[in-house]
Amino acid sequence: MAVHSASEQVLAGLDPEQRSAVTAPAGPVCILAGAGTGKTRAITSRIAHRALSGEISPRHVLAVTFTARAAAEMRHRLTLLGAQGVQARTFHAAALRQVRYFAPRLLAGRAMPELLDSKVRLVTLAAARVGLRTDRAAARDLAGEIEWAKSSLVEPTDYVVAAARALRDTPHEPAKVADVFTAYEQLKRSNGVIDFEDMLRAAVWGIEEHPDVGEQIRTQYRHFVVDEYQDVNPLQQRLLDAWLAGRNDLTVVGDASQTIYSFTGATSAYLVDFPRRHRNATVVRLVRDYRSTPQVVGLANAVISQARGTEARLRLELSGQRPPGPEPDLRIFTDEPAEANAVAARCRSLIDAGTPAKEIAVLFRVNAQSEAYEKALTEAGVPYVVQGAERFFERTEVRQAMVALRAATRSIPGETPLPVAVVEALTAVGWAPDAPPAGGAARERWEALSALVQLAEEYAATPEVVPIGEAASVERPVTLTDFTEELARRAAQQHVPTVDGVTLASLHSAKGLEWDAVFLVGLAEGTLPTTYAKTVEQVEEERRLLYVGITRAREWLWLSYATARSPGGRARRPSRFLPQLDRSGGTERATGSTGPARRPERRRTQIVSCRICGATLLAGPDRKLGRCPTCPSDIDDELHERLREWRQRVAGAQKVPAYVVFTDATLIALAERRPGRSEELIAIAGIGPRKLGLYGESVLALVAGAGVDDVCPEKTFEISS
Asked: What are the boundaries of the region Disordered (predicted)?
């Protein structure tokens, strides 16, 4: 009875979909869990419910995920639920534990080879062996390409064909990468070391080629749970298949709309194909979002609803469960410095109003974007931390560039225009102002140095004012020496250590995290989606990145972009992923980033949400109504008829079609919302100051109960030119 009570207690507080996932019968179970829907609660409750009911033994369960933090969270929750003894580990940790345990048997008594913590050193040696000189960034890109190949079960001899099929943006000519791959494998063997992919392969080999090892592992682990299943790669799936050995007690959980790591070899194909691979699978969809407000959830749904491709087949329409919150804001700025300054000012005001700094995040597409926000936050007195990357001025390439710039002050003539001087100096560290190189790390290095060139252009736009008398002054162009001193000042300011602060992170680094307030910045074409997204599949992954960013916000969400990167720069368009929004909202003034003068107005775009369910409204008629077409109407039919009659008389008097006065959608909105004041009337989309002046008094009278004859007979409606 006590056991039954404990297992039933696990079900307390679960929503119907979570309960279905927890109580699903033994066998293949696929839980499609949207952001914030309680997936960790569902899978840990499923394990605990089965264990406490006596269906399974905790020590026979292996739960795998992708980060040590997620594994620790699973173990903690299972302990609280009373299911001690479950092995919750990352794929690599589980494989390492098994290979170490069975090494004496698998290796004929020899010790397990040393495990490389990084491929970069050996890859650098391998590149040199095949005549390829590399810096650290290039070596990191080659290491990443080798890691992709090994995770995708691609051998060196097959790399060229596989890379072509996968449309890989290779850091060097594919045949040369294959040569480096081959040399790297030879160096590993001669040094007696293995890498993480070798360890996973060793675990597979141990199970598949050694029946006694396979039997012992199958006896130990009989029930499997895989978190973030959309992120598995072919090698990890091969290991999972080896663990299962044809058995089917497998629970997977994932969200195809959060597939954002395909460049590493991760694929959502196994999640998408799960029902086909496992014919009798139970599929449960978790769609109740407990993390974000309905307003944030509505925008996330609007963005992902436009998705196309394989992953879109499993997209989920989330339903916000929290109380309504503020509408997301879309802000448009003249340039990126103005955008960064506005973000910093808003962070400052949020903190002053009581929001903890650690509950605020600024998210961007690439790490090179962080510099502007580091500077703006520093000058606003806002502490910050950089997630998943170094601070801008701590990056190796930036430190090297600053040394090169200081050295160039002695060789480049002082009258050389600053941007030209900076470009010339940066050639000493291998930067060139042409197209960025292929490869993620090399491209990131190029973008960081490009950011220094952009800083020089902005700094050059603010010449120093030098007094030449009591009432006169002259502008002096800034020099390279001035610029290096400015960079040193910024670096010194931003090197102040902080323990608790606003999080600066790339969208990739933000996966799995959440904050009360989130700023999504730089949402312009060329940045999100990046210009490097060439194929349809790559563009769709960029869309999913924005979706992941939106769903990080619990309550307060800001989306922004700048119409130019730097003051006076080339115009840019907003990201194609942003909903087509009404741009008729009010304006606010933004403080400029390059001096005390006021900058041009920035536009503030209001995102309209359904007043009933909170979903973001995109279609014009829906925005006028203020609700989704599927949400129930509370229209006052009698008022609607009086409004229609009044419109007909006014249109006849003005000799214009009826819709010129008010559209049908506007009349329905008036009859549903029944505004009592001018402020409420003008809040209805389609009613601006002009129509308020022409018709406002009559409409408010009709809403208050006046008859059509009361407002029409003696009234003349004239449209001023």
From this structure: 566-603
User: In whole angstroms, what is the distance from residue 445 CA to residue 464 CA?
Assistant: 31
Q: What per-residue confidence (pLDDT) applies to 390?
A: 61
40 is in an annotated binding site: yes
User: pLDDT at position 606, please?
Assistant: 55
Q: How far apart are CA 200 and CA 220, in angstroms?
A: 18
With H, G, I as helix, E, B as strand and everything else as coil, classify residue 477.
coil
Instruction: State yes or no: 564 annotated in a binding site.
Output: no
pLDDT in tens, 508-533: 989 989 999 999 999 999 899 988 88
Specify the amino acid at residue 568. G
DSSP secondary structure of 273-297: THHHHSTT-EEEEE-EESSS-HHHH
Q: Is 691 annotated as a binding residue?
A: no
Q: Can you read off the two tokens belonging to residue 451?
A: 């950011």
Judge contact between 682 and 690, C-beta under 8 A: no
696 is in an annotated binding site: no
Instruction: Tell whether 39 is in a known binding site.
Output: yes
Q: At what angle do helices 211-220 and 234-244 cross, to 10 degrees?
A: 80
| pLDDT tens-digit series, residues 94-143 | 998 999 888 888 887 777 888 888 899 999 999 999 999 888 888 888 99
Q: Is 203 annotated as a binding residue?
A: no
Cα–Cα distance, 507 to 541 (Å, whole number): 12
H or E element in which residue 186 lies: helix 174-191
Cβ contacts of 101 within 8 Å, gap of 6 or more: none
CA distance 24 to 251: 10
Q: Does residue 592 register a pLDDT over 60?
A: no
The answer to whether residues 254 and 35 touch, using CB atoms and an 8 Å cutoff, is: no
Establish whether 407 is an annotated binding residue: no
Length in residues, the chain: 721
C-alpha triplet 216, 222, 224: angle, nearest 5°? 125
pLDDT at 594: 36
From the list 102, 320, 356, the residue with the least C-alpha distance to 216 is 102
Please report, for residues 281, 362, 401, 425, 558, the alpha-carbon distance to residue 393 in angstroms, rounded to integers and kept in the order given: 51, 18, 10, 17, 26
How does pLDDT run across 6-60, given as a tens digit for each residue? 778 888 889 999 999 999 999 999 999 999 999 999 999 999 999 998 899 999 9
φ and ψ at 606, to 5 degrees?
-90, 130
**Helical axes 136-151 vs 234-244, angle rounded to 10°:** 40
307 is in an annotated binding site: no
Stated as kind and residue range, the H or E segment containing 343 is: helix 336-352
E-strand ranges in 144-287 read 193-194, 223-226, 250-254, 282-286
Per-residue pLDDT, 628? 64
Phi, psi of 21, deg, nearest 5: -65, -40
